[in-house]
Write a structure and sequence with these properties.
Blueprint (H helix, E strand, L loop, with lengths): L3 H8 L4 E12 L2 E12 L3 E5 L6 H9 L6 E6 L2 E2 L5 H6 L2 E3 L12 H11 L15 H12 L15 H13 L5 E5 L7 H12 L6 E5 L3 H7 L2 E6 L2 E6 L1 H5 L2 H6 L7
Parallel strand pairs: 3-8, 3-9, 6-7, 7-8
Antiparallel strand pairs: 1-2, 1-4, 4-5, 9-10
Helix pairs in contact: 4-5, 4-6
Bound molecules: adenosine-5'-triphosphate.
The site of adenosine-5'-triphosphate has 11 residues, from β2 and α2.
Length: 261
């Protein structure tokens, strides 16, 4: 094995952040996910692509615990989390972002990030007012810098551009000590300049934080991911490097709408 994945194998003793074995999810008669087996190494950056209704968001919901799978098992850093509630998965370092914004318009950027850091810290139930040198304040400042929002530090969330709000959502996923993040279409609705910022933010995340990104913008997905998993009608039908996926005729036929390049 060569490239970034080889180093990861050595560094993590072959450990996987995520291991899905035979995961399925039905909604009544509809099979949204069928027999999904997927391994993502610790620190790996993976894109999951597929047309509308392929099952990508359902896949995220089963990993986070929002939906229980109807079959199969899910391991997170070796631990079977299949039956765990959402908060137990968060406690172990799993994070996600949503397609639809869940931000509070009336809070400032720094307060939003601070509260997110506080919410996942062990001091969240403390009755003492946090002081100016409280460690979560410093963490909030670092995260704000990592998502390029320094200049909007005291702006209200409702006054941010759509792109800045998406950057803030990435910040929320970085609160606490994330080990793995699920990004659900973070580039949706962004301008070309905002997309470039997002690519930079994602590629500059600390190396130990792995992620899966669902993204319709191929340019973004293939630039930030080391490996790509293609889904179609609830199943995985291809996995490979961005180059392999981009030049695959079947991928082109199904996902890129024909044109066997
Ligand atoms: N809560 C639900 N109840 C019933 N059916 C659902 C539910 N969530 C998803 N589905 C169905 O499961 C299938 C997969 O949907 P899913 O949202 O996972 O696809 P997707 O690949 O994320 O699509 P998109 O790119 O449009 O977000 C679809 O047929 C969808 O209608």
């Amino acid at each position: 094995m060569t490239g970034p994945a080889a180093g990861l194998d050595a560094a993590h003793g072959g450990d996987h952040a995520l291991e899905l074995a035979g995961v399925g999810r039905r909604f009544g008669a509809l099979t949204a996910l069928a027999d999904i087996s997927l391994k993502v190494k610790a620190g790996e950056r993976r894109a999951v692509l597929g047309s509308n209704g392929a099952g990508k968001t359902t896949l995220f919901n089963t990993i986070t615990g929002d939906f229980a799978p109807t079959s199969g098992s899910i391991r997170f850093f070796g631990e079977d989390i299949t039956g765990f509630p959402v908060h137990e998965r968060i406690r172990r370092g799993l994070r996600r972002t949503y397609q639809v914004s869940l931000l509070f318009a009336g809070l400032s950027v720094i307060d939003t990030i601070f509260l997110a850091c506080r919410g996942v810290s062990r001091r969240r139930f403390s009755l003492r007012r946090p002081g100016p040198d409280e460690p979560t304040r410093a963490q909030a400042e670092r995260i704000m810098h990592a998502v390029k929002l320094d200049e909007s530090r005291d702006a209200l969330v409702g006054a941010l551009s759509h792109g800045q709000q998406r950057q803030l959502e990435v910040a929320l996923a970085l609160a606490g000590a994330p080990r793995f993040i699920l990004f659900d279409e973070p580039a949706a609705g962004l301008s070309p300049a905002e997309r470039r910022d997002l690519v930079q933010i994602l590629t500059q995340l600390p190396a130990h934080i792995g992620f899966i990104i669902i993204e319709h913008d191929l340019d973004v997905a293939l630039r930030v991911a080391e490996r790509v998993t293609m889904m179609h009608e609830g199943r995985i039908f291809r996995e490979g490097t961005p180059d392999e996926i981009e030049s695959d005729p079947e991928v082109q036929a199904i996902y890129l709408g024909g044109g066997h390049g």
